[in-house]
Amino acid sequence: MLDLTVVGVERISPKHVLLRLTDQRPLPEMLPGQFVEVRIDGAPHTFLRRPISINFVDRGHNELWLMVAVIGEGTKRLGELKTGCVVNCVLPLGNGFRTHVVPSDSCLLIGGGVGVAPLLYLGAVLKERGISPTFLLGGRSEKDLLELDLFNKYGRVCVTTEDGSAGEKGFVTNHSVLKEHFDYIATCGPTPMMKAVARYARLQGIDCEASLENMMACGLGACLCCVEKTTEGNLCVCKDGPVFNIKRLLWQD
Predict the structure, then answer these.
(1) What does the pLDDT look like over 66-98, one tens digit per residue?
(2) Prediction pTM value
(3) Alpha carbon distances (Å) from 211 to 25, 32, 109, 137
(4) How far is it, in rounded angstroms, from Cα 160 to Cα 32?
(5) Of 96, 98, 29, 122, which Cα lies nearest the Cα of 240?
(6) Residue 202: what pLDDT?
């Protein structure tokens, strides 16, 4: 548990805010796909912490980046933070993507909406390993596409929008890049999107990991509100995930 200081607040879309946090001491090691439980101060009706994916770790500046989707009272309060504010965080939590066993030749990272957040850090770590991933990012319209300039630093970026305002029109699973060969897929976003990606990966015989976004209250596996049915029985997404190989998930529809 750390009290982190806000060093930057950036509105990256009408609905999303990027928080940059730091500490006087070096931040702990964090893996792509892990998350943070953030305490909400100044919101009288928000009692539980909010789980937020690790968007990026800037070691040079000792910064942790969190992308916040401003939806309810708690996240609205986070979006109103100013430079110098202190945010209490429990981190890092959960299990991340298996970057140490990712194939070195063809990686596809697929994200939708705020689900693109953990893929930026994943792409940066892969780039450090000499792997240049392909990103496939989707949104309802151009204004829903987040951090494209940053993703471009770490690999090729392909885009879909439902209204055709940017990239190819349609869903991520309709993009022409899927005609290419890939050995590994990582995905995060709305559950219907991830299930469609998982279906594609199974049909193509591609190793695939998905970062689930179940409702997580405690982040430690105690409250059981984030349970997911798996081949190993009911597992807590916060403790046993949030990243799962799709072979462990009962996503056969």
Answers:
(1) 999 998 888 999 999 999 999 999 999 999 998
(2) 0.94
(3) 29, 10, 11, 15
(4) 23
(5) 96
(6) 95
